[in-house]
Amino acid sequence: MTAAAASPGRVSGVAGAPGRWARRIAYYLPAVVVFAAAIAAWELVVRNIDLRGLPVPAPSAIATALVENWSNGRWPLSKAAAATLFEAVGGLAIGTTLGVAMALLTARFATAREVLLPLAIGASAVPIIAFAPLMNNWFGVLNPLSKMMIVAVLVFFPVVVNVTRGLTQVEPSALELLRSYAASEWTVLRALRVPNALPYFFTALKIGTTLSLIGAIVGEYFGGTSDVLGRVVVQSASALRFDVSWAAIVLAAIAGIALYLATVAIERAVIPWHASVRRPEP
Amino acid sequence: MDEARPKLGPATPGSVMPVGPATPVGPATPVVRIAAVDKTFVSDRARVTTALQGIDLEIRRGEFVSLIGPSGCGKSTLLRLIGDLVAPTAGRVTVNDKPANRARRDRDYGIVFQAPVLFDWRSVEDNVKLPLELMGYDAGRRTARAREMLELVELGDFLHHHPYQLSGGMQQRVAIARALAFEPSILLMDEPFGALDEMTRERMNQEVQRIWERTGITVVFVTHSIPEAVFLSSRAVVMSARPGRIIDIVEIDLPRPRDVVTREQRRYFELVTAVREALRRGGADELVADALGEGSGPAAGLIDRAAAEGGIG
Fold first, then answer.
1. What is the predicted ipTM?
2. Does B102 touch chain A (CB under 8 A)?
3. Distance between CA B161 and CA B150 in Å, rounded?
4. Of residues A151, A158, A168, the one with CA closest to residue A112
5. Which of A203, A243, A259, B57 has an alpha carbon within 20 to 30 A of B192's alpha carbon?
6. Which of chain A's residues have a Cβ under 8 Å away from the Cβ of B158?
7. Which of B80, B134, B162 is the closest to A187 by Cβ?
8. A81-117 confidence digits (pLDDT tens)
9. Rounded distance, CA B311 to CA A88, Å?
10. How far is A257 from chain B (nearest CA, A)?
C-alpha cells in the first residue's frame, strides 16, 4: 500500500558478492588505516625520541616477544592465554546461568524481586578486588574455579538486571492479547517474555565478555598457577621484561575482542529480527 | 460474494468447549448481553474514577456495533468488559449465554488493538499461527488456516515477511487475520485504525466491511471517528463523556455493500449528523467541534492506564 509494500523487504541481502566485499572493505578501511597509523607512530616515537628511560617497548619489540615466547621459555604465552580464556569463559558461563535463573525467579515472583534484587545490587557494589582473595581461599588458589567464580560475580549483576527488564517490560497489550487466548502464565513466559528478553540478554552478555577477562586477570594477580596471563604480566614486569608484559596484555585484549565478536555472531544468528541486528531496508 | 465465502470449517479445535460459538442460536438472540454494568477504577491514592455507569446493551449475532464517544468515556473499557480483560464493578456481562470470563476461557473472542501487537520474532504467517498453536491445532491445520486468513486480508504474498517490513495498515491487517484465525464468534476491535492516516483508514474500513460480510462474524468496534462508525456499523452506540453512559443508539440503515459512493449520499450525511447530535447531547461539544480529535486530558490518561493495568491481572 505504501512504500513498504511497494518494495517488499528482503530478509537476506542478495546483492552480488563482489559488491558486498567492496562495501565491507570501504566500511572497515578507515578504522584499519587509523590503527596502523597509530602503531607506526608509536614505533617511530620509541625509536627516535629519547623517552628518558621510560620503559615503553616499540610495537616491533612486543611482536618479537610475542613470537619468541609463544610456546617456550619462562613465559609460554599461548598456554597462558588459553588458561586465562578458559577461566573467563567458564566464569561467564557460571555467572550467566545463575543470572538468568535469578532473573526468571524475580520476574515471576514479586517476593523474589524484593528479597533478591537488593542482595544482587549489594553484591555488585562490592569492589571485585575485595572478593578475589576470598574466592581464592574458598575454591583453592590453584583451582581455575576460584578465578571463574570472581568472573561469575562480575558477570552476574548485568545479566540479572538486563534479563529481568527484558522479561518484565513487555507491551501491556501483548499481555492482553495472550490473556484473550486464555494463555497460562507459562505460555506467556514462553511465547512472549523469553523472546522479548533475548535482546536484553545479549546486551548483558556483551558487557559480560569484557568483564570476564578483567575478572580473570584480577583474580590471577592474587595468586595461582603461573601459566596465566595475569601472572605473566606480574612476573615479567618484575623481571623488567616489559616487552613480554605488553605481549601478554595484547593477547588479553585479543581474547576479549574474540569473545565479544563471538557473542555478536551468536546474537545475529539468534535474533535476526531485532532492530539492533537487522540490516536497514534498502 | 457467495461463492467467495471462505470455507469456515466447524469451530472445534480440541480444546474449545462444545458450548462455544458452534451452538446454533437464532439470528435475533443476543451474543452479548450487558446488564446494569458499572465500572470504577481506584487509583494509587484511593481516588475513585467512575468510567462507566448503568450500561445496558444487547448485541445480536452478526451485528456490526460501534462504540463511539469522546476520549475517556470508557468505550475501550466497555470493550474490555465484553472481552473479560477487566471485570465490572457491578452488573453482569454475558457472552454466548455464558459469563464473560467463561467465554474468554472458551476463546470466543478475537481481539484487535490500536497497535497491531505483532511479535517481531515471528514471521507474518507465524504471527497468525500463534493463537492456533496455543489452542492445540495440529501443524497442517495451522498452516492451512493461517494462509486462508492471510489470503482473506490480501496478504497472501507476505507470509514470510517480518512485521517490521510491513506498513502500518498491513500490520493491522495481519492483526485482523490473527484475530479471525481461530474462528471466534466475536471480533473486538479497539480503535484499530486510530493510528493510520485518513486514506489508509478508509481503505481499511472497506476491507473490514468485506471481511465482516464474508465471515458473518459479530463485530464490536470502538472508534472516535464519526464517519468510520457510520460507514461500518449496523448500529452506532453513542456514549457520553465520563462517567460513560449510553446516550443513544443510532440505527445505520445504509444499504450494503457500502463503498466510496456511500460516503457521498444524503442518508450518510443525515446519519453522521444524527451521531454528531447525540454526541453533543452527551456533552462532547469540544470534541464534536474538532471532528472528534482525540483529547488527552489527565483523566483520559488515568482511565486508559487503569484499563491497561486491569488487563494484566
1. 0.77
2. no
3. 12
4. A168
5. B57
6. 8
7. B134
8. 999 999 999 999 999 999 999 999 888 887 777 788 7
9. 44
10. 28
